[in-house]
């Protein structure tokens, strides 16, 4: 197993532990921030759709074989990234994700399977849903930079909720 797989798995386990030990009130607050992130991802995807990025990307996959998903993914996904990923995911699916990360025998993203990404659009980390590294449309990246402030605000709010969780303070 590679170092980044170990880190991914450790951050996934932290996210799962926090999710499973949060109070009802903290879960309700977290849901608000998770929904904010999903909404921001949809806004960015809408911009990408309007510019034709999504269609061009899907059309190119038979040729490029999803190279950006294999090689351009962040090897430092945080516990917050994974928390957003698993927040609304059934426990069985969380366990499957854990196994996939641990058992992958690859140098690229272990979540990318032969038939595509294991995660749905809503579950994918922000960087994985808003990247489009093949396209050099400066205005898209300017709009994305403007949204980063809002993403950061939601991530920071989730981090504060983590601090209130006893299992996280022991990590």
Q: Helix content range of the residues, please? A: 55-70%
- Count of β-strands: 2
Helix-and-strand structural type: mainly alpha
* Amino- and carboxy-terminal Cα gap: 22 Å
Structural account:
It is a single chain. Helix 1 runs antiparallel to helix 6 (91-103) and helix 2 (24-50) packs antiparallel against helix 8 (138-163). The chain has nine helices and two strands. The chain has 171 residues and is mainly α. The mean pLDDT is 83. A two-stranded antiparallel sheet has the order 1-2. 69% of the residues lie in helices and 2% in strands.
Map the helices and strands.
Elements: H1 3-21, H2 24-50, H3 53-64, H4 67-71, H5 79-86, H6 91-103, E1 112-113, E2 116-117, H7 126-129, H8 138-163, H9 166-169
Antiparallel strand pairs: 1-2
């Amino acid at each position: 197993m590679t170092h980044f797989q170990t880190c991914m798995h450790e951050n996934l386990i932290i996210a799962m532990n926090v999710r499973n030990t949060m109070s009802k009130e903290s879960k309700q607050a977290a849901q608000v921030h998770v929904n904010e992130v999903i909404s921001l991802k949809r806004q960015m995807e809408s911009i990408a759709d309007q510019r034709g990025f999504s269609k061009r990307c899907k059309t190119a996959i038979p040729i490029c074989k999803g190279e950006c998903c294999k090689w351009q993914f962040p090897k430092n996904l945080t516990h917050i990234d994974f928390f957003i990923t698993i927040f609304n995911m059934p426990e069985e699916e969380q366990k499957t994700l854990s196994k996939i990360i641990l058992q992958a025998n690859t140098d690229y993203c272990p979540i990318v399977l032969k038939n595509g990404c294991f995660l749905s659009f809503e579950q994918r980390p922000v960087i994985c849903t808003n990247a489009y590294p093949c396209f050099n449309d400066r205005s898209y990246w300017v709009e994305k930079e403007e949204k980063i402030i809002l993403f950061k605000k939601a991530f920071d709010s989730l981090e504060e909720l983590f601090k209130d969780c006893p299992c996280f303070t022991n990590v």
